[in-house]
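Weekly puzzle thread! Below is a chain. First person to post its structure in token form gets bragging rights.
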Amino acid sequence: MPAASPPPRAIVLAAGRGERMRPLSDHTPKPLLELHGQPLVAHHLRALARDGVAEVVVNTAWLEEQFPARLGDGSAYGLRLSYSHEGALFGAALETAGGIATVLPWLSEGGREVFWVVSGDIWAPDFVFDAALAQRFAASNLDALLWLVPNPPYHPKGDFGYGDAREDLAPGAAVGVSGSAAADGSPRQTYANLALMKPALLHGVPAGQRAALGPLLHQAMARGRVAVLPYGGRWANVGTPADLAALQAQGA
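Winning reply:
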């Protein structure tokens, strides 16, 4: 009987400049801005630890020296935290696919078949990093599993739609489609920046080079290798000072 894959690791994406969050992001990286008494990114770290993820890497670029100074080794959040300092190592942020590819040997170390991906500047307090779902995804023929949310006002056309059902994963799961509408004619929804992925999705992406994730997802969808799930919990892309202030006013 083959040995079970080690538990998944996670990458939290935190390398962006945060232009729309200026002037707040001029002196503090957006994921380190405080919401309800702790940095935005810390909410993810606590949730990952709560759900059994023990090891996390954060990729950084803008004002990246602030991350280890503020978050430390992760012990305050109940996990082990490391950093991929793209600014120091490569001179700039590597975009999403480039950032993931650069730490892929670590994410897949020891025969790990899947890993979690979450953006450090979203607010998703109800999301569960479901270990059982990660196992079902690992056993599937998929390369990525994405969560979608209703389109926010700033992104009315959405990103992806729902194709045929994937009942082997979870209720509501479907094959992802990237055309103008979903299989049932409903409009596309927005990628929530929450995902499970396999190393195969990043095949051919060099470490240390800039590369976008979107084209890889569209290509994998064309091969039927991506599934999507609806996320119905609280969610916000915390993009501007007004977004942050509105969430702060809502309370935890």
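Puzzle host: Confirmed. Bonus trivia for everyone else. The chain has one domain: 9-250.
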